[in-house]
Amino acid sequence: MDTITIPQSMLPEDARFGSGPSKIRPAQVEALDRAARTLLGTSHRQAPVKDLVESIRTGIARFFSLPDGYEVVLGNGGASAFWDVMCASLITRQAACGVYGSFSKKVAASVASAPFLEDPIVFESEPGTYCVPERAEYVDTYCWAQNETSTGVQAPVYRIDGSREQGALIAIDATSAAGAIPVDISQTDVYYFSPQKAFGSEGGLWIAILSPAAIQRAEGIKRSCALEGARRWIPPFLSLTSAIDNSLKNQTLNTPSISTLVLLGEQVKWLNENGGMAWSAARCKRSSDIVYAWAERSAYARPFVTDVDARSQSVVTIDLDDSVPQAYVTAALRDNGIVDVNGYRKLGRNQLRIGVFPSVEPSDVEALLACIDYVVEHM
């Protein structure tokens, strides 16, 4: 088919709508430029970088209004590495996992692969829905995703009835939720994420907000591993106690990407200055509502998630009619500079997936939808 040229006046000012990595604001790049002569290429164990890490930890604590005793901990490797950190340093014997998409499935797979843990109890539902684990005897850690990035489903976050009495932790994968979807951190013990979504940075870093119970659990597992005859081994890279100890010193166990820290620090500052979680979540909801309302009106598009309360306000998934091939639409958009609205490949649907994190302007979301309509009309 012939190339479609969208009129320049219709295009978004910024045409990045990725679900991760996501848009990095120009002000963050400017901060990176300022850091080029002062921070980049310097030791992460010296005051300038440690001051940056301290500002990040303090800013995140402010953003989430952390209860007393909770700590912000940083480590290298991204959220996928933290799945293995949980297996090595947080789950004592058995976990229960909510599985409702590719990433929540990967968490359960990591737990199942740990030879010193019992197989997880899996609570599973179809893509486009969510399934929070139910209380189960002998379970010591309940795991699920606040937002399933692959399907655009957001799930509630709460303490499962009876979990406190059994001494179980609540561990929430918040990679595409943190900073975009409201949460009461007191309902969690482990709230972890990577910064390449709402926090507008690069990958390769994980951030975990840990309750006193989670910190105590990690310390207890470390002690048990030191006992003679222990079957469990904690690789140094996956040691949560080491990550905690280093974070309290405002550093990471291994050398971090300082540019990632600079971008993250600038974004945390921007979010807090604009009103923190309440402002950020409202902005994301406004953008997601624009997309869902458009899809409900459309003759060729519809929201993938049918339960209105389960529709994500950070990653919006929209099904297209078979007569409107997603591959053609996204290719035409990319030809015009609009990028990363492809559906999740492994889901295998004729679908668009639109990241509406706080860095994305709602006006650009409106422009994107007008451009999609234009492409479909001129197919």
Automatic annotation (TrEMBL):
Keyword annotations from UniProtKB, A to Z: Amino-acid biosynthesis, Aminotransferase, Cytoplasm, Pyridoxal phosphate, Pyridoxine biosynthesis, Serine biosynthesis, Transferase
EC code(s) of this entry: 2.6.1.52
GO biological process: glycine biosynthetic process, by transamination of glyoxylate; L-serine biosynthetic process; pyridoxine biosynthetic process
Catalytic activity annotation: O-phospho-L-serine + 2-oxoglutarate = 3-phosphooxypyruvate + L-glutamate; 4-(phosphooxy)-L-threonine + 2-oxoglutarate = (R)-3-hydroxy-2-oxo-4-phosphooxybutanoate + L-glutamate
Pathway: Amino-acid biosynthesis; L-serine biosynthesis; L-serine from 3-phospho-D-glycerate: step 2/3
Database matches in SUPFAM superfamilies: PLP-dependent transferases (SSF53383)
Function: Catalyzes the reversible conversion of 3-phosphohydroxypyruvate to phosphoserine and of 3-hydroxy-2-oxo-4-phosphonooxybutanoate to phosphohydroxythreonine.
Name of this chain's protein: phosphoserine transaminase
